[in-house]
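in:
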C-alpha cells in the first residue's frame, strides 16, 4: 500500500483515529486488541478513553513493538505489546489467557516507520536494499523474488497483487535488467519500472507504486494473513463487541467485505447450489425434526459449503473514508477504507 500508511513520521498520526475510536466505544472499558500496533497511535486513543480499558498490541516488527512500549509506558498495567504475526491471533490470546474481548482493530497499512526508512526496502522514494520483510531476517526478500522468479511468474505476481495492467511489460524490463546485474536496491527497481512504463515528468502517484505493493504483499503473505485474522477475531468478540478493519487497496478491502458478508449470514454459493441445499435441509428437517437441525447448527452456521454464518451485523454498508481535512494533514491516509462489524 504505497499510497497509504499508518502514521506520519512527524506527527505519528494514526489513520481514521476519531472514526475507529467512535466505532469501537472504548469509553465503556474492557479488553481491546490492536492487531497492527505500529507506533501505538490507535492503542493510545483506546487507552485514553477510559481507565477501565486494557489494550493488547500485536505487531510482527520488533522495532515497532519496542517503540510502542516506550510511547505507552504511562499506561503500565493496562497495556501489553506482543511481537507476533496477527495470523496467530488465537494463539496469542490463548497464551495470555484471554477468552473474549470488547473490540479489535487492524490497520493493514505499513507504518511510516517502516516505509520511510530506506534500509527496510519498502519505499521507491528512499534508496535502500530491496528487502520489504516485516520481520527482519525472516523469509525471502523482494530482491529474491525479483531476481529468481521467471519472467512469467513475475508478471503474474505484479498483475495479481499489484493490479498492474502493464505487468508483462514491467516483468520483461526487469528480466532484461537483471541479466546485466542483479537488482538489489529499491532505486534500481523503481528506475526500471519507470523506464518500462515510459512515463516522464511529475506524477501524482509514482509509476512503481503497484509493483512495490505486489512484491510487499508476496514477501509478507499479507492477503492470507488477513483471511485468517477475520474469522479468528470475530470468534473472540463478546456479544455487542466490534471489529474495525482499515485497508488500503482493493485486494484487502475485497477480502474484508466478503468476510463480513459471509459472517453476517450471506451465502456465497452459486444460485443453483443454494436451491439444492435448501431442498436437502427441508428433507432433513422433516425426517429428523427441527430440534436436531438446531442442535447441529453450530455457531449459527448457515452454509457448510461456503462457510456463511450469522455471527455479526455489518455496521458500515459502504467503507468509511478519511475526511478531506485528514487527507490534507496526512496525504498517506487518502486511500484508507474502514469497515466495521458487531458481534451478535
Amino acid at each position: 500500500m504505497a499510497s497509504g500508511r499508518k502514521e506520519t513520521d512527524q506527527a505519528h498520526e494514526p489513520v481514521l483515529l476519531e472514526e475507529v475510536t467512535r466505532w469501537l466505544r472504548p469509553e465503556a472499558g474492557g479488553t481491546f486488541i490492536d492487531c497492527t500496533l505500529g507506533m501505538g497511535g490507535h492503542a493510545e486513543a483506546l487507552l485514553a478513553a477510559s481507565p477501565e480499558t486494557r489494550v493488547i498490541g500485536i505487531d510482527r516488527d520488533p522495532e515497532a513493538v519496542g517503540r510502542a512500549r516506550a510511547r505507552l509506558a504511562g499506561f503500565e498495567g493496562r497495556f501489553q505489546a506482543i511481537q507476533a504475526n496477527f495470523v496467530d491471533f488465537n494463539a496469542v490470546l490463548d497464551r495470555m489467557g484471554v477468552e473474549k474481548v470488547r473490540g479489535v482493530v487492524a490497520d493493514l497499512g505499513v507504518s511510516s516507520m517502516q516505509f520511510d526508512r530506506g534500509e527496510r526496502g519498502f519505499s521507491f522514494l528512499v534508496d535502500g536494499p530491496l528487502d520489504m520483510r516485516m520481520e527482519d531476517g525472516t523469509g525471502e526478500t523482494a530482491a529474491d523474488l525479483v531476481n529468481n522468479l521467471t519472467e512469467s511468474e513475475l508478471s503474474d505476481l505484479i498483475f495479481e497483487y499489484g493490479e498492474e495492467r502493464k505487468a508483462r511489460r514491467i516483468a520483461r524490463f526487469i528480466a532484461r535488467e537483471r541479466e546485466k546485474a542483479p537488482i538489489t536496491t529499491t532505486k534500481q527497481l523503481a528506475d526500471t519500472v519507470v523506464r518500462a512504463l515510459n512515463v516522464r515528468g511529475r506524477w501524482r502517484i509514482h509509476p512503481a507504486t503497484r509493483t512495490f505493493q505486489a512484491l510487499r504483499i508476496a514477501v509478507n503473505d499479507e492477503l492470507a494473513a488477513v483471511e485468517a485474522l477475520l474469522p479468528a477475531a470475530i470468534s473472540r468478540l463478546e456479544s455487542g463487541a466490534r471489529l474495525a478493519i482499515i485497508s488500503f487497496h482493493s485486494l484487502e478491502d475485497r477480502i474484508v467485505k466478503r468476510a463480513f458478508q459471509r459472517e453476517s449470514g450471506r451465502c456465497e454459493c452459486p444460485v443453483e447450489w443454494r436451491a439444492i441445499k435448501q431442498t436437502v435441509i427441508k428433507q432433513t428437517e422433516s425426517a429428523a425434526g427441527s430440534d436436531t437441525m438446531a442442535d447441529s447448527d453450530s455457531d449459527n452456521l448457515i452454509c457448510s459449503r461456503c462457510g456463511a454464518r450469522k455471527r455479526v451485523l455489518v455496521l458500515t454498508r459502504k467503507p468509511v473514508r478519511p475526511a478531506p481535512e485528514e487527507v490534507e494533514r496526512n496525504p498517506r491516509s487518502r486511500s484508507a477504507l474502514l469497515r466495521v462489524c458487531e458481534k451478535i
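note: The chain has two domains: 17-113+223-343, 121-220.
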